[in-house]
Write a structure and sequence with these properties.
CATH class of the largest domain: Mainly Alpha
Mean pLDDT: 93
Distance between the termini: 32 Å
Number of strands: 0
Helix content: 55-70%
Protein name: Iron-containing redox enzyme
Pfam families: Haem_oxygenas_2
Number of domains: 2
Strand content: under 5%
Radius of gyration: 20 Å
Low-confidence stretches: 344-348
CATH superfamily of the largest domain: Heme oxygenase-like
CATH architecture of the largest domain: Up-down Bundle
Organism: Micromonospora humi
């Protein structure tokens, strides 16, 4: 059983269900490992919008978290239960298909041209101006919302990409180690990026527990995280995983500068902004490593993966656009971008 009581580092308690499949899975996870109901999740094949389907995305998150911290009071044997893996696959197929549609057609590229093509792909990204809004206009409540969304990722920030390490060799592996060393604070707990983000959350008065805000975030926030887990857990998608990391590193410095400036505008101190300030410096260096040494090194060794690298970068950027559109649309309407969870309603 995963029973740790240290809420900072997991495992988290099981969340509330968001539909019939996640409800059935949650009921099963509370019991002894065994066969899930036959055909559970078959309906996911016809879901119209997988990225925003609450039941599908929570089902994936429940399955994937078994490979991270696990769930509190859930038997660890569930991680490799065949019927659970089959359910996960039924949810993954429409999700991956939706990601490929969203990424759109991508150019064929020779290995030597991949870094430049990645740079062009990132430069062409014209997502909604969420970072600018947070820098110049967002109020404290909206900034707290944004940090709540991002906590699902940032409290385990480097972990999905670390799954690539045993699947790489040579220059690509060395480049990934270099990037991940910074993410993990070069072995110092207080410098780990997840810990720096936890300090930001604390300054904003937010619960800093691992996955503490899971019930509040919508499907599109889960999709950002599920995309990384999908890429990380499938060896066949290792190129997409590295492309995703490169896309993040190559688009990180300017937004993080704006996030930090937004917090300073709201009167917060250097402890609150340190996470963002650290990324301004670190990711400016990581950008070149990710494009040339990481992804360039991979496709020099495995030229057939060039298309997967571009797909991973494009998919990550596209899902982030969907997320930004959701947040800005809610704020424009004077509404919260977070969910009102069933637990919050019950406590009201």
């Amino acid at each position: 059983m995963s029973t740790s009581t240290d809420r900072r580092y997991g495992p988290a308690p099981l969340p509330a269900a968001r539909g019939p499949v996640s409800a059935a899975l949650l009921t099963a996870l509370r019991g002894s490992p065994g066969e899930l109901p036959s055909g559970l999740g078959d309906g996911f094949a016809t879901v119209a919008a997988p990225l925003t389907d609450e039941d599908l995305q929570l089902t994936l998150f429940l399955c994937y978290e078994l490979h991270y911290q696990g769930w509190r009071d859930v038997a660890e044997e569930w991680e490799w239960e065949p019927s659970l893996l089959a359910l996960r696959a039924r949810a993954e197929r429409p999700f991956e298909a939706a990601l490929r549609r969203l990424a759109g057609p991508l150019p064929a590229v020779l290995p030597a041209a991949l870094p430049a093509t990645l740079t062009d792909l990132v430069a062409a990204d014209d997502g909604p101006p969420l970072a600018g809004t947070l820098q110049r206009r967002a109020d404290l409540a909206q900034f707290r919302e944004f940090v709540t969304h991002r906590s699902i990722y940032h409290l385990r920030e480097a972990d999905p990409h670390s799954w690539a390490l045993p699947r790489l060799g040579g220059p690509a592996k060395a480049a990934l180690v270099e990037i991940q060393m910074d993410e993990y604070g070069n072995g110092r707990l207080d410098l780990m990026h997840a810990e720096l983000f936890r300090a930001t959350m604390d300054r904003l008065g937010l619960d800093t527990g691992y996955a503490a805000h899971l019930d509040r975030v919508p499907a599109v926030t889960l999709a950002i995280n599920n995309l990384m887990s999908l890429f990380g857990l499938h060896r066949r998608l290792r190129g997409a995983l590295l492309g995703h990391l490169a896309g993040y590193e190559m688009t990180s410095s300017l937004p993080n500068r704006r996030y930090g400036n937004g917090l300073r505008r709201l009167g917060f101190d250097a402890v609150a902004t340190r996470f963002y300030d650290e990324h301004v410096e670190a990711d400016a260096v990581h950008e070149q490593i990710a494009a040339y040494d990481l992804c360039g090194g991979l496709v020099r060794a495995e030229p057939a993966l060039a298309g997967d690298v571009l797909f991973g970068a494009a998919a990550g950027l596209a899902v982030d656009r969907v997320f930004a559109e959701h947040v800005l649309s809610a704020w424009s309407a004077g509404e919260s971008s977070l969910r009102v969870s069933e637990r919050a309603l019950a406590a009201a």
